[in-house]
Write a structure and sequence with these properties.
Helix content: 10-25%
Order of helices and strands: EEEEEEEEHEHEEEEEEEHEHEHEHH
Number of strands: 19
Bound molecules: zinc ion
Shape: globular
Number of helices: 7
Structural class: alpha+beta
Strand content: 25-35%
Number of domains: 2
Length: about 300
């Protein structure tokens, strides 16, 4: 049997919000089986929690933003990716304001916190969504495809007309690719865009401390890149975080080209639009083996 997981105890992370540039904090708290992942705005006491689900995504510009009524919570994707990496199904996430802190622009600080506090198996079995037929979406030169597979995998590619990026591809296979291959990959942006956005009052917290920043030719961060192909690895991390918004483990093989938050949401919406596209299955020993979802494998995947 493959059982749901939550965390052993609460943990708080504090930093700067990417968009407002003010202090933001996020507290992760254990939650009961079958509750799923819920976000709660602490600055609006009594407001209803927002389920971490792609149907609640209200903005995909520069980050994934969830919303309900007039309340929004942005920059959730790197935290969601860490939750995917640690196979966490149930969690209450309390946020001090409208954004999750950007921290270092990757999921590494979340992973370090989760590793420190530990996760715990719950009594309820975990289900999975098995893709039954090919589904695809295209938006101009970007596209996303998912096909049936016994395991969850992502083949991501990007093609950027920039001397420090160019064409890059990365293949992530659940249970085989150590999460540390992508967890530290940072978000990235171009100096000219960052300056223009700041003039518009956006990404006020953006800096070399929380993003890879490039001018027209080079990476400006004094310490350079964390991986030679950090850009496509970050894109893969973003996809893992956004696909966690399906609310269920997916058994399917994704191919993503020049994808982003908008396309990630679109491919999930397309899959869920027609029940003939998928089947909900209980993870048995065979699938368990394919996912390598045991406590031992989680530990092994995080061993550096
Ligand atoms: Zn990102």
């Amino acid at each position: 049997m493959n059982f749901q997981r939550t965390i052993k105890k609460a943990v708080t992370l504090t930093g700067i919000g990417l968009h407002l540039g003010t202090e933001a904090s996020v507290t992760l708290k254990p939650a009961a089986a079958n509750q799923g992942i819920l976000f709660q705005r602490l600055d609006h006491p009594g407001s209803l929690p927002i389920e971490a689900n792609f149907r609640n995504v209200v903005n995909t510009q520069m980050a994934t933003t969830l919303g309900k009524g007039s309340l929004t919570i942005s920059t959730i994707e790197h935290l969601m990716a860490a939750l995917h990496g640690f196979e966490i199904d149930n969690l209450l996430i309390e946020v001090s304001g409208p954004e999750v802190p950007i921290l270092d622009g990757s999921s590494l600080p979340f992973c370090e916190a989760l590793k420190k506090i530990g996760t715990v198996s719950q009594s309820a079995p975990r289900t999975a969504l098995a893709i039954k037929r090919r589904v695809e979406v295209k938006l101009a030169e970007k596209w996303a495809v998912v096909e049936p597979s016994k395991k969850f995998e992502i083949r991501a590619s990007i093609d950027w007309d920039h001397p420090s990026i160019g064409y890059q591809e990365f293949h992530y296979v659940e249970g085989q690719t150590p999460f540390s291959e992508i967890s530290a990959a940072r978000t990235f942006g171009f100096l000219r865009d960052v300056e223009a956005l700041k003039k518009m009052g956006l990404v006020l917290g953006g800096s070399l401390d929380n993003a890879v920043v490039l001018d027209s030719a080079l990476v400006l961060n004094p310490d350079g890149l964390r991986y030679p192909d950090e850009f496509v690895r970050h894109k893969t991390l973003d996809a893992l975080g956004d696909f966690k918004l399906s609310g269920i483990q997916i058994l399917g093989s994704f191919k993503l080209h020049r994808a982003g938050h908008d396309l990630h949401r679109s491919i999930l919406a397309e899959v869920f639009k027609d029940p003939a596209n998928y089947e909900i299955v209980t993870l048995d020993a065979e699938a368990d083996e394919a996912l390598m979802a045991s406590e031992i494998s989680v530990a092994a995947r995080f061993a550096v």
